[in-house]
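Co-fold these.
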Amino acid sequence: MTSVPQEIPLEQFIVLSAILFSIGVYGVLSRRNAVLVVMSVELMLNAVSINMVAFAVYTAPTLFVGIIFAIFIITIAAAEVGLALAVILRVFRNRGTANIDEIDTLKW
Amino acid sequence: MLASLDRFGPELAVMATAGLVLLADLVVPRRHKAWLAGLSVAGLLAAALWLVILVLRGRQASFFDDSMALDNFSIFFIFLFIAVCGTVIIASLDYAPRFGSHQGEFFALMLLATSGMMLLAGARDLVTIFVSLELTSISQFILAGLLRDDKGSEAALKYLLLGAIASAVILYGMAFLFGIAGTTRLVTTNGAPSIASTIAAGDAGIRSALILSMVFLAAGFGFKMAVVPFQMWTPDVYQGAPTPVAAFLSVGSKAAAFAVVLRIFYEGFGPNTFVGNDWKEMFAILAAVSMCVGNVMALRQTNIRRMLGYSSVAQAGNFLVGLAAISALTNGRTSLGASGVVFFLATYAFTNLGAFIAVMAISNRTDSDEIADYAGMGRRAPIPAAVLLFCLLSLTGLPPTAGFIAKVYIFNAAVQADLVWLVIVAVLNTAVSAFYYLGVARQMYLETAEGLPTLVRAPWATQGILVVAAMGVLTFGVYPIPLIEAAQRAVNVFG
Amino acid sequence: MIEQFGRAGFLLIFAIAFPLIPIAASVALGVFRIRPRKPDPIKSSVYECGMVPVGDALVRYNVRYYLFALLFVVFDVEAVFLYPWAVAYRALGVYAFVEALIFIAILFVGYVYAWRKRAMEWI
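Predicted complex below.
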């Protein structure tokens, strides 16, 4: 097992992850292009991965479960992005746009 | 390890059938795609049979090193999911040709989503919960857009983007839960530390982190349960997705989400721990808001599927009443609130499936989901209209239907848990919901059908399913004791 | 702690200064009229290894690449799972070996599916 990096307290990782997660949320809320929204979601997932690995190293150094969790997050993020691109492609072919403000046939 | 695989059998059977269907789809010619439906139902039956044998042998236990559980709770939900998936597959035989060359994918994805839900019902580990949740969600995202038309792909895009955000939010909550407990197991049977034992120990220093994690989990699962303020996708997907998929989503996905919420909050966080009141209050508020917003929005809908979408948001609020009232006990042990949720979910499965399949049978003939086009449907399509009427009565909560018993049961639980204000809100909302549910009934039976053609009858399989659903709603409305007892046994595993 | 950052910081300062100094020098020589200024079309065009640049860099890529990217990602992520298994292979034994075989078999089903659905043909 990797040794705990004594000089860097756990809080710094949590703060880093919180900042990254917030940037992702901001991107999701402010971006208009569906592909960029998906990229922002990826940012949120990566923030969680950082959190998982940091917690795994600091709080349960003999268990690898946090690191395994991060691997599963990577896998499922890849599946989601692949699917998201396929759906965006389909919408683009039907509508000629990937701008989520203009995709508004279904509302209220 | 083989004993674990034995208990894992039903899920394995469904997953293996999904793979088989996918491969068989490559060789089966297009005219004979209905065989794939037969193969899927056979796989589901095999899974159900395996589960029955497991129950008869009394194999209930925690397995795979405590990451899964085969207990009365998961057994109840696995049977429910198998029944829902089988019903939707049989009822969609009439609809499936619309998928063209993608019929095989439709059946395979239905099975994969079902296996994910079955896993969710038994999952006891954060990693397992997350992976099975994503197995369900990703299959459903594809299913929502399977028709590849304009509305379907829009619905799929909205569902997918919001679903991906919800997953990220759930994960963020899970990361903190893992950081607090140092393990991902919700409960352990061998005395090793678990999330439940960490919370039960009640160290005040972890309280704020726990509440943070709880809020994130509730927000993420609130999306899957379709409660306000995370309900945005529901009406769009119910309207845009293929009708059988919408039927499957409205029942299966919601039941799976409530099952996992019961696992995490009831079994993991616990109702009597130092954070118990926090999450109960949170769910009480979400319940009230969901019921009000769902019903008010449903009032102004002109599209029946959209109306059912908002109605399902309101119903989710009703289920949440049970979660808020979880500490009301009967027999000194069984949680009235939790068993109410489980019982309500089972009756809701019959009711909403019946309603959606009736809508599918009608709209497949008229090519319209507008409520205005249901004029005189009582004469034009007698059986689907009658079943739809009956199911709408049950959704409203009028006797002699299962929906009535479920509402009375869950309101009783709320009264016993001193949540009288919530019951008042819920009863007022029931009155509001009667307007739009019975509006459809009025359109079907009191509007004249002159000049409108009588519709071609739906195939016998669909009619049979409709009658079975209506019989179920009626039976559990008149004689609900067996189902209530099953629901109480299911939640006793947490008590 | 801080001296470790110090070493990295030295590298950082160097990395920033290295490209900035020539640019600043070029600007300064221009300002003081030391360097000649005789632009012509070929001189001021974008340097592209001697080729004449054509069009905008932000082109729309052919959508067919998407399928290849997707298939690549599938097998790329497969490797993420196989690496830890391979590292711990001796400790895990036969059971994990069978599990890995099942894992690869499932991927193989997906591969056959993609192949038969003509996902790998350049349409």
